[in-house]
Here is the input.
Amino acid sequence: MIIRHRVYHRVYTPSDFDLVCKFLYDLFKSSGTINHWLPTRFENGHMDEDETYYLWEEAGEIVGVLTSEKRHRFLNSTNSECLRAMLNFLKDQDVIISCTSTNLQLQPILREYSYQPQRVEGYIRIYDPSFIPKALSLPDGYSFQELTEEYHTKYTAAVRDVFGHQFFDEDVIRYLQSRSFWIQDLDLLIIDDDGEIGSFSTLRIDPVYHITELEPLGTTPNHRGKGLAQAIIMELLIRHQAYQSDLIYIGGAANTPPANAVYDATGFRSKIEEWFWTK
Here is the structure.
């Protein structure tokens, strides 16, 4: 069989989206671990119209998806011939390849092409389903608030303040809230008595494959050290019990002592290293 690649059609053939989501889910189920993107992450990536995705097909069936975030490339396939075809496609590009510590198939192929692991960029955290979330008391003056239009302006400012995402505006919020993974009561803020945002987080549930992603999680600088991040995750997990989900994960979880303490305390105890490889 001959493996060929083509550009992913974002607009003209909407079926490409469904085909890719199913392919990514099947990769997850067949590998038993998160070595590749999952459908929620792929759908979220549609926000950036500048990114290009490539599909590798064999006899009309998808065998690989190449996804990108700026200089970073993610090779989604369990077909060794396809992985080599992707690396040949990238041979003249100065890119960073993301590879999890559990992806034992991709690692030797990367070395064949002179890539070497450089550093652990972060972790994929996986929620322990046996963990029982418990409501935590908020400090005086704080309360939970769902992200409604009233808070859009303050929320964009908070995201920019925490992550530096200057592109993040109210159009982005409206886009995210139009996605299939968005549920109102799982898009949560913690606000103070003045209506200022102290912490924010969201659980996104894939309605087809029942996979949940926690993204984003942030606490604004003036409100740190008060246990808000742990409290908002616990509240989201309690609310999440009303929905069906086979997996809850955090992609690209921050690898800092405070973040690791929060993840461990809220049931996200299993972690997979995400390594960046370069030539």
Remarks:
- Residues 15-31 form the longest helix (17 residues).
- Residues 142-272 form a domain with the Aminopeptidase fold (CATH 3.40.630.30).
